[in-house]
Amino acid sequence: MEIKEQSGLRAVLENTPLPKVCRVRQIFQRDGIQDVPAFLREKLDRQDLKERIKPGMRVVLTGSSRQIHNMPEILRELASFVRAQGGEPWIIPAMGSHGGATDEGQRQILESYGITEEFCGCPIFSSMETVRVGELPNGDEVRVDKFAHEADAVIVVGRIKAHTAFRGPYESGLIKMMAIGMGKRAGADSLHREGFGKMGERLPEYARVVFDSCNIIFGVAPIENEFDETCRVEVIPAEEIFDREPELLLYAKSRLPRILIPETDILMVREIGKNFSGSGMDPNVTGTFGTPYATGGIRKQRTVVLDISPESHGSYIGLGKADVSTKRVFEKLDTNATYFNMITSTVLNVGKIPMILEDDKLALQTAVKTLTQVDRDHIRLVYIKNTLSLENIIVSEALAEEIRGREDMEVLEEPRPLRFDERGTLLDFLD
What we know:
Blueprint: H1 7-13, E1 21-26, H2 36-44, H3 47-50, E2 58-63, H4 71-84, E3 88-93, H5 103-112, H6 117-120, E4 130-135, E5 141-145, H7 146-150, E6 153-157, H8 174-181, H9 184-192, H10 199-213, E7 216-224, E8 230-237, H11 241-254, E9 266-269, H12 283-286, E10 302-305, E11 324-326, H13 327-330, H14 335-345, E12 355-357, H15 360-369, E13 381-384, E14 392-396, H16 397-403, E15 409-411
Parallel strand pairs: 2-3, 2-6, 6-7, 9-10, 9-13, 11-12
Antiparallel strand pairs: 1-14, 1-15, 4-5, 7-8, 13-14
Helix pairs in contact: 2-4, 8-10
């Protein structure tokens, strides 16, 4: 499919006025850990943890498909810890069907995040091969990564965070890493078979079978603050993981980055991608959920997506929840990388293709033109870089007036027109 020249649309939209905007700072608590490796070393300095690794043991560390702050350093520190006890550390990609559901694709995802053999000081063994280790109460089989199954011990590593498609006592975290991450495509397929409406119930069931079949010795769970900084790292003995994770999830939810404006007419997102969220753009921020089993985020009438990150490798999960996008995005779409994820998750609407306009200006003008029941002299616009970078945002003049005087938001400049180059590319990058 080709995006044809849009001079006719341009003529229709050229007189659509765009609101003036200004930069705004959202004020969040800044409490990131300054030296995460040192912090983790102190947490690991426990005899009961050291005793769980015997000389010669092959110990697997799990690597996620998300770009998690400090994860390369965390895995390097864990590899060093294992070696210090006489063990032999490995890293495996634990990411369901991501990376096109291939060995090399999953290895490349880790490497793109800086998780390499050279940096971490241990091998990365990537395989989609799994071993049957049991079944769920409904008869669905439970499978686990062959390297995790063959290892003498497993340290489960995974960020705890609110999920983007369902709610439950366990969402994104160590339990999900055991079930879907270590289960590879087979585990992801099995767990998603009954949809996200059942995920909260099925996830711990599946994880329990994996837990009982592998020698999981402890878990390491980073938690991030509103600045995408590591603010906690919990080292949890294996026998405590199922009890501890729900309370840590509640804390993680309290630290989610968010837009401190409850409602707008248009939400414009500079960049989506798998490195920002499993859903491309975190619906806990944008309100653009792919399922009816989770709610939250900003309310709006139109969502505009301007670009996809290089780190997403063409996966455009989340684009389907946009109303308008750009030719630049369309030219980057990789259906293979995206469809594997859609089929596995059973959520198809996140990969639909919205209206595609030639440039940023046309895309935004389309969103403005199609608004209904709004004050066109006071369009309410919120523009974010991505769903992880939310300290600095851009808002329209109408919203700036609404938030002046708030203690949790600061207007940084006077309203001005949005800036575009001669090709219609937006020049306000929020860097």
